[in-house]
Structures are given as C-alpha cells and as structure tokens.
Write a structure and sequence with these properties.
This protein has 280 residues and is mainly alpha-helical. The protein contains eleven helices and no strands. It has a domain of 187 residues: MetI-like (MetI-like fold), CATH 1.10.3720.10. The longest helix has 36 residues.
Length: 280
C-alpha cells in the first residue's frame, strides 16, 4: 500500500515536471518566433503600398512609392547625410528619454508611497498634464533658446506623464490582500515596497514606459522643427523646401521603424521581467 502511494506521488511529480518543461518549451518558442511574426503585417502594408503605387491608385506626387523611398535612402546614405541626421536624433531622444524616465520614476515613487507627496505634487502635475505640451514650444524657445535644450526638454516632458501616471496607478492598485499577507509574515514598509508593491506595480510601469517611448518619438518630430540644423526633422523640413516627397516619406518611415524597434525592446524586457506571468 505504501509503495503504491509512493509510486503515485512519484508519477504526479513526474507529470508536473513534464508539464513544466512543456510550458517552458512553449514559452521559449513564443519568445523566439514572436518578433518575426510581428513583421508580417508591416510587410503586407509595404507590399500593398507598392502595388497601389504601381497601379496609379496612389499618385507618386502625393506619396512616393517604396522603390523611390529606398532610392532616396541609398542616396542620402551615400552622401553620409542620413547617418549624421540619425545620430543627432538618437542622441536627442536618448537624453530626453533618460531625463523623463528619471523624473517620472522619482515623482511616481514619492506620490505612490507618501500621502503628503500625493497632496503636494500630484495636483500641479495633473494641471500641467492637461496643457498641450506641444503648445509649450514658444515658451521653451523663450526660456532655453533655439539650441539643443528645448528639443531635449520637449522629449523629456512628453515621456514624463505616461510613465508617471501608470507607475502611480500600479502602486495604488496593488492588491490589499497581498500587502496584508506581507505584513503577516513580518515585512516592514521597506520590505513590503521591495517584495510586494514594486513587483506588483511593474506591469503598469512597463505599460507606461511603452507609451512614453511612443510619445518620445512624437515629441522629437515636433521638437526638431525648432530651428534645427541637424537631425531627421531637419532633413524632412529641408526636403519639403525642395519638394523631395521621397525624402519626407523616408524620414517618416525611419521614425516609424525606430518606434517599432524601441517598442520591441520594451516588449522583450517585459517578457523577461514578467516571466512569472502566464504568457499569451
């Protein structure tokens, strides 16, 4: 009888281990195949764009076909203009993103954990959030001139609010039962914050970070119209002067690809940090 029970327990453990291995294999397969599957719809749109342009449905004077855009990319790459513009834009968005993330995390943690900070900091931020930040461009020019500062600060301001709001929402939305369970095992405020609240708020924070990345590229497009003499925005504005529709479309496509690439990086980070969740 005892041997039968032991055998049953061993079989159950074996089934559980096998199930865990199968789940792990499926998860690895999804992680390796998923990024490639996400390229299907952009490729379909690209093919449809070329077909419609070739058949004259989309006039080249309105929207250059992919072949012309590719030719413009090769032209600018050959002269070195594209690499230089891309490097300047990436530097601007990188600095602005870092500044915005630091501010959003610092303010989000203060407001999320301390009631007095919630009362003192959140109302002004909510007031500022309702102001269209793109309308602040003239004020930024007056404050910071027409150099790099207003461009970087525009990106930082665009990054700030989505991450801040989602981080605060995630902290406040942690299940109260989990907090009580943590207290029941002797966790103090720091222990609760480190092992319960921050891990529980991580999904919302990552969602906010993805939104912030999208707004960062939008802010960059607008910021690079402020008397810029370098960057992708300058390249697009200069092309508009000479009616180079192909270069204008190329700039927009590069912005879109950069946004897709950065979003894919965050999705990978999300899959790694939240690997304890059931994968879809």
């Amino acid at each position: 009888m005892t041997g039968a029970v032991a055998g049953s327990a061993t079989a159950i453990r074996g089934d559980a281990d096998a199930g865990s291995r199968r789940a792990s294999t499926r998860r690895r397969t999804r992680l390796s195949v998923g990024p490639w599957l996400r390229l299907i719809s952009p490729l379909v749109l690209l093919i449809a764009w070329q077909v419609l342009s070739t058949n004259g449905v989309i006039p080249a004077s309105k929207l250059s076909p992919p072949t012309q855009v590719w030719a413009a990319a090769r032209e600018l790459w050959g002269t070195g203009e594209l690499q230089a513009a891309l490097g300047v834009s990436l530097q601007r968005v990188g600095i602005g993103l870092a500044l915005g993330v630091v501010l959003a995390v610092a303010l989000g943690l203060l407001v999320g954990f301390f009631r007095i900070a919630d009362l003192a900091i959140d109302p002004p931020l909510q007031m500022l959030r309702t102001v269209p930040f793109l309308g602040l461009i003239p004020l930024f020019v007056v404050w910071f001139g027409i150099g790099e500062e207003p461009k970087v600060y525009m990106v930082a301001l665009g990054v700030l609010f989505p991450l801040y709001l989602n981080l605060v929402s995630g902290i406040h939305g942690v299940d109260a039962k989990l907090i009580e369970a943590g207290r029941s095992v002797g966790l103090g405020r720091i222990g609760l914050a480190r092992t319960v609240i921050l891990p529980g708020a991580t999904p919302s924070a990552l969602t906010g970070f993805r939104l912030s990345l999208g707004v960062a590229w939008l802010s960059l497009i607008v910021a690079e119209q402020i008397n810029a003499d370098a960057g992708l925005g300058y390249l697009v504005m200069n092309a508009r002067t000479y009616f180079r529709n192909d270069i204008i479309v190329l700039g927009l496509v590069i912005y879109a690809l950069l946004g897709l690439f950065s979003d894919s990086i965050v999705r990978g980070l999300e899959a790694w940090l939240l690997r304890w969740r059931v994968s879809r």
